[in-house]
Amino acid sequence: MRTQPGLSLTYGLVESLGQAIVTGEYAEVGFPTEGELSKQFGASRTVTREAVKMLTAKGLLSARPRHGTVVEPENEWNLLDPDVLRWMLERKFSLRLLAEFTEMRLGIEPAAAALAARNADETGLEGIRKALNRMKAAAGGEDDPLSADIAFHVAILNATKNPFYRDLHELVNTALRISIRFTNRIKGRTASIPSHQDVADAIFARDAEAAQKAMQIILVDVLDLIRAASPDTESATARRDA
């Protein structure tokens, strides 16, 4: 499909404005009008209008009578939007947000691994196999460890054959790029291949319970690392769970 004229300009403006909103640039001065945005960024009214619509769909902006376009409070932002999550994680690195995202992964990925064990066809299994082989190659310096690790987790989502799990791949991809870099830095090494092999072996054996437990072990280890790096995060999470 051909890119529509001006679409890349729109995405560029969305990126610039999204980062500015999330970092609080408009907290005191208010959000600019379309005319002001056009002048500031040298973009047409069509481009600025489309960018504002896209940011509104992400929950960052809204149009209010007599107030024009305003920035919505953070609790209205769509954290399931990959762009919003990335902007939030990048604005000021937050261990608490990373821990909360990992808690969400604990509710999703072990179940996805179990579902993959039950539902995966040969194409899905081959995707997991290729991703695991990439991780092994990365351990020998023949592939990128970060991309290979992400590919493994995304392959499992795809192997579920459930469209709702598959549609989470962009969100998982976005957050894992930050999460894995952080946890690898703490551990001083890349992801454990044996633990990922355990997940894959259980899926290949069609053992849903073992696949779920193996994935849970990986994610609990990640969450423990994040909590250990931030006592405040750990205590806050413990209070919430109490």
Give a description of the structure.
The protein has 242 residues and is mostly helical. It has 2 domains: 9-76, Arc Repressor Mutant, subunit A, CATH 1.10.10.10; 93-229, Four Helix Bundle (Hemerythrin (Met), subunit A) (Up-down Bundle), CATH 1.20.120. The protein has 12 helices and 2 strands. Strands 1-2 form a two-stranded antiparallel sheet. Helix 5 (95-119) runs antiparallel to helix 11 and helix 5 packs across helix 12 (231-241).
Task: For the structure shown, list the relevant keywords.
242 residues; mainly alpha; Arc Repressor Mutant, subunit A; Four Helix Bundle (Hemerythrin (Met), subunit A); two-stranded antiparallel ribbon; 12 helices; 2 strands; disordered N terminus; disordered C terminus
Quote the average pLDDT. 87
What is the number of E strands? Answer: 2
- General form: elongated
- Rg of Cα set: 21 Å
Strand arrangement, major sheet: 1-2
CATH class categorisation of the largest domain: Mainly Alpha
Distance between the termini: 51 Å
Give the CATH superfamily of the largest domain. Answer: GntR ligand-binding domain-like
Poorly predicted segments: 1-6, 233-242
Q: What name does the CATH topology of the largest domain carry?
A: Four Helix Bundle (Hemerythrin (Met), subunit A)
The CATH architecture term of the largest domain is Up-down Bundle
What structural category arises from helix and sheet content?
mainly alpha
Helix tally equals: 12
Instruction: List SSEs in N-to-C order.
Output: HHHEEHHHHHHHHH
Taken together, the total number of domains comes to 2
